[in-house]
Design a protein that fits this description.
Layout: E1 4-8, E2 10-13, E3 18-24, E4 33-39, E5 46-51, E6 57-59, E7 67-72, E8 77-82, E9 91-98, E10 113-114, E11 118-123
Parallel strand pairs: 2-11
Antiparallel strand pairs: 1-3, 3-8, 4-5, 4-9, 5-6, 7-8, 9-10, 9-11
Length: 124
């Protein structure tokens, strides 16, 4: 079992930046992956960025070049730096994790553990 605690988010104007953090409780596993998903009302939860057990990052086409993942393994914390934010980036952002090699952005059910969610609002 892993407990995920998110922080960050908020409101910003278009072109601005925000950083999200996701701290995972201690775990022992040979494979562990993490990801960020976002959801807006009436839409499916979509993958934004993921990092696999080898710390290789993956990004949705819509955020490539603007969002960057980083990970502090000593703190078990994943960060999502979001630059040049657009109104369409608005949504509830969720951190996800799983004991697997991971990297999936298309399948939310590949992740067993979820954070509490944090709102990101980008105004034009």
């Amino acid at each position: 079992q892993v407990h995920l605690v998110q922080s960050g988010g908020g409101s910003v104007q278009a072109g601005g930046s925000l950083r999200l953090s996701c701290a995972a409780s201690e775990y022992t596993a040979s494979s562990f992956c993490m990801a960020w998903f976002r959801q807006t009302p009436g839409k499916e939860r979509e993958g934004v960025a993921a990092i696999d057990s080898d710390d290789s990052p993956y990004y949705a086409d819509s955020v490539k070049g603007r969002f960057t993942l980083s990970k502090d393994n000593a703190k078990n914390t994943l960060y999502l730096q979001m630059n040049n934010l657009k109104p369409e980036d608005t949504g509830m952002y969720y951190c996800a994790a799983d004991f697997s090699d991971g990297g999936s952005l298309s399948n939310r059910y590949a992740y067993a553990f979820w954070g509490q969610g944090t709102q990101v609002t980008v105004s034009s």
